Amino acid sequence: AGAYICGEETALLESIEGKKGQPRYKPPFPAHFGLYGQPTIINNTESLASIPVIMEKGGQWFKELGVENSGGSKLFSISGNIKNPGVFEIPLGTPFAELLEMAGGMKNGSKIKAVIPGGSSAPIIPGEQMMQLTMDYDAIAKAGSMLGSGAVIVLDDRNCMVKVLERMSYFYYEESCGQCTPCREGTGWLYRVVHRIETGHGRPEDLALLDDMTTKIAGRTICALGDAAAMPVQGMLKHFREEFEYHITHKRCLVS
């Protein structure tokens, strides 16, 4: 009942009611039929934290902090191979390069390789491309990813992308509530195939298999966890496919 899946609003309600933390079918939505069958409003803590200053200074003032279509500010939790991991509140539209500078820059003078801009479910973006982007919904979406939870993970050139994906795939495999077959079975298969590649037992057809599996999972589940498991795989294969091919061919990591 305390699992990751309870970040989904209806799974949270189920957990509070003492049931399995599994998402409900919608509709009905919580605003009509929520906790113990009563109308229930659910908001993220970040949304609630923005209310006092909006009440004090007005919605227009808050909106003008950001950019067009991405008004206001947002909390970003930045971690990874950086000097000063932390949580920073910045106006939407702030260049990623400025956020990285706030976090002290890259650790030990290493080179930025890639960034996961919105939590582990957000498709990865190559570092050079990310350094040219601003932290707002439109810019990140046009780059093929999303701001999501605002959990920014910065990876340097010492990271093996196959190993990174193996860890993420295992997480979603472990956190699937098991209610939907595409997610319950699909997350397990995603992890097992990526693990097979990472441990030197990959097959040439594995990359096509991963591509195919993600299309069979995404958009076919009650909640978004299936999508969350599929999107990192799609992003990795789009931008770092050569590392997976190298692992399969040479049975070891391209990164020394």
Describe the 3D structure.
With 256 residues, the protein is α+β, with helices and mostly antiparallel strands. The chain has helices at residues 9-16, 45-57, 59-63, 96-102, 127-130, 137-142, 161-175, 181-198, 206-217, 225-239, 241-250; strands spanning 73-80, 86-91, 94-95, 112-116, 125-126, 134-135, 151-156. The strands form two sheets. The protein has a five-stranded mixed sheet. A two-stranded antiparallel sheet has the order 3-6. The chain is flat. It starts with 8 loop residues before the first helix and ends in a 6-residue tail after the last helix. The mean pLDDT is 96.
Q: Structural class given helices, strands, pairing? A: alpha+beta
Overall pLDDT confidence: 96
State the separation between the terminal residues, measured CA to CA: 41 Å
**Gyration radius from CA atoms, angstroms:** 20 Å
Identify the strand order in the major beta sheet.
2-1-7-4-5
E-strand count: 7
What is the general shape?
Answer: flat
Biggest beta-sheet profile? 5 strands, mixed
Query: What is the percent of helical residues?
Result: 40-55%
- Show unreliable segments: none
Bin the strand percentage: 5-15%
Number of alpha- plus pi-helical segments:
11
What key attributes describe this structure?
single chain; 256 residues; two-stranded antiparallel ribbon; 7 strands; 12% strand
List the helices and strands and how they pair.
Layout: H1 9-16, H2 45-57, H3 59-63, E1 73-80, E2 86-91, E3 94-95, H4 96-102, E4 112-116, E5 125-126, H5 127-130, E6 134-135, H6 137-142, E7 151-156, H7 161-175, H8 181-198, H9 206-217, H10 225-239, H11 241-250
Parallel strand pairs: 1-7
Antiparallel strand pairs: 1-2, 3-6, 4-5, 4-7
Helix pairs in contact: 7-8, 7-10, 8-9, 8-10, 9-10
